[in-house]
């Protein structure tokens, strides 16, 4: 299972690097990293350049296994703060559809990344940590739980918006609506399995495998077909799915094992 967690870490690192390059290329943040109406932010392009460069650096460190724990803890708390103090107020006060479950999709995606970084941090242990890092490390056990809650939300989306999701399926896939419901059920089952620690390794492994299959047959073809549409939205979705697959593999690979950084 150690190899599985390494694969997950590499997947996640590559995804972060990819989003970093996108931030620099488009002079803006990936669509789910912060709420959409953010043009008011002073020096947005400069901030996107800096954030993009930092994401590339962080992603490279995670992918190559360099100072993974402290870097992941810092990134995790930054993403969690964005969710708590930007996404939640935005959804509650800047939109009039906060009761619409689907309107929270991007917030859930960002939260899933934040939780996933803590999962990645949990793959490693430090012999000595300063007080600040020790405080952040207390969030590590919550990483898999919060990530699984977002997976439950994504599974629920498959049922609530089944017809819209079916339109995303490739034309060569038969019975697209059936596969949408199947994927939704699989997401919910995996999330429950991880949260309740019922065959957690198996649940997380199957979840990571399923999402990685989506990366291959769904996301990559769409990213190749429309690489620049919507500021590279399809490419971002590909990196996002790869990150989620990596998080699931990391959960599976570190159920009973930690590694020293």
Amount of beta strand? under 5%
Rg (CA only): 18 Å
Summed up, the domain count is: 1
Largest sheet: 2 strands, parallel
Give me the secondary-structure category: mainly alpha
Q: How many individual helices?
A: 10
State the shape: globular
Overall strand count: 2
Q: Provide the residue-averaged pLDDT.
A: 93
Instruction: Please report the distance between the alpha carbons of the first and last residues.
Output: 17 Å
Q: Please state the oligomeric state of the protein chains shown.
A: single chain
The helix content, as a percent range, equals over 70%
Which strand order do you get reading across the main beta sheet? Answer: 1-2
H and E string: HHHHEHHHHHHE
**Which regions have little confidence, pLDDT < 50, spanning 5+ residues?**
none
What are its keywords?
single chain; mainly alpha; 261 residues; 10 helices
How does the SSE layout of this entry go?
Elements lengths: L1 H25 L17 H20 L4 H27 L10 H17 L2 E2 L5 H7 L2 H21 L1 H5 L9 H20 L4 H26 L7 H21 L5 E2 L1
Parallel strand pairs: 1-2
Helix pairs in contact: 1-2, 1-10, 3-4, 4-6, 4-10, 6-8, 8-9, 9-10
Short synopsis of the structure:
This protein is mainly alpha-helical. The chain is 72% helix and 2% strand.
Structural overview:
The structure is a single chain. The protein is an all-alpha fold and 261 residues long. It has one domain. 72% of the residues lie in helices and 2% in strands. Strands 1-2 form a two-stranded parallel sheet. It is globular and about 55 Å long. The relative contact order is 0.17. The model has no long low-confidence stretch (mean pLDDT 93).
